[in-house]
Inverse folding.
């Protein structure tokens, strides 16, 4: 008989939820988030769930201190349910749907989903993609509704093609992960820093014939371009089909699940799709492991409601 993925005790019991999160974040035992101490850490009995006391600094803490869950009034087991739902939904899940499933307000669900997206975001110290013998594909796409579908008072007749839409650039390492960015334009000045920071120059780079790739492509071990303008999409191992597949999932999520994504928050949604793609089942990562991997990213990423509302940088 099949068992629901959400039947695990830590999805419904607060004590079990704290115990499970502690096993994920503290695999070798509790660590004080205040001083980093490992010794003489004891459980505070008779207090709130999951409370510990650090011997060296004498301060009390829980596993949520210093994470995106800190000071949240939402029960931890509901956070774990929300994380599982986001991580197991290939095209994402809207805050409104999360609100209905968890029985919280839409405002609370919206904030929860953005905190979880922050947890999924790439850490600044992340290593470059690719390397010797590896292949990286680079491509861009436009995200945004058609002018004909907008309210008559908001249509702009000058918005033809990609005009008026958000531009998304992605790097996909074949057989591995993806990293996408919301960019202002597709010039070499914009693309060069992204590739220099995220793509190992010993890789083979596969792109289309857009001029923004010409000079930066020369810094890679090999650079192949396919000419889409001449209906060329595959030439040997030169193609960008993996990047196109990533965009297909992203757009189905944006248009089919979220319906509209603000440019101010687009970078957070991209982090979510990057994470799921980089931890997909084709790489041998199941829903439970994907959720645990996401929650390992909650540390050191406090996100206040005010900051999340005002976030406009990509």
């Amino acid at each position: 008989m099949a068992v629901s993925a959400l039947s695990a005790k830590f999805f419904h019991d607060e004590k079990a939820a704290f115990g499970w999160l502690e096993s994920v974040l503290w695999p070798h035992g509790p660590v004080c988030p205040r001083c980093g101490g490992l010794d003489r850490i004891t459980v505070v009995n008779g207090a709130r769930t999951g409370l510990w006391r650090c011997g060296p600094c004498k301060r009390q803490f829980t596993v949520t201190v210093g994470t995106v869950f800190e000071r949240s009034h939402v029960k931890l087991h509901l956070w774990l349910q929300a994380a599982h739902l986001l991580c197991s939904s290939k095209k994402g899940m809207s805050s409104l749907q999360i609100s209905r499933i968890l029985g919280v307000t839409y405002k609370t669900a919206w904030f929860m989903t953005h905190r979880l997206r922050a947890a999924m975001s790439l850490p600044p110290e992340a290593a470059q993609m690719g390397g010797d013998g590896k292949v990286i594909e680079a491509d861009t796409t436009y995200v945004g509704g058609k002018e004909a579908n907008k309210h008559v008072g908001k249509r702009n007749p000058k918005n033809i093609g990609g005009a008026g839409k958000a531009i998304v650039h992605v790097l996909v390492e074949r057989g591995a992960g993806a990293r996408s960015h919301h960019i202002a334009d597709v010039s070499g000045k914009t693309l060069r820093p992204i590739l220099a920071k995220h793509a190992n120059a010993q890789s083979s780079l596969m792109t289309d014939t857009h001029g923004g790739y010409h000079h930066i492509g020369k810094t890679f071990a090999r650079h192949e371009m396919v000419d889409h303008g001449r209906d060329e999409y595959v030439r040997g191992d030169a193609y960008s089909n993996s990047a196109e597949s990533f965009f297909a999932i992203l757009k189905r999520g944006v248009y089919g699940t979220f319906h509209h994504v603000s440019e101010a928050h687009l970078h957070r949604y991209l982090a979510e799709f990057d994470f799921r793609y980089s931890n997909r089942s084709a790489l041998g990562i199941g829903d439970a492991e994907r959720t645990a991997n996401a929650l390992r990213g909650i540390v050191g990423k406090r996100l206040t409601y005010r900051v999340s509302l005002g976030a406009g940088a990509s």
In short: The CA atoms of residues 45 and 51 lie 8 Å apart.
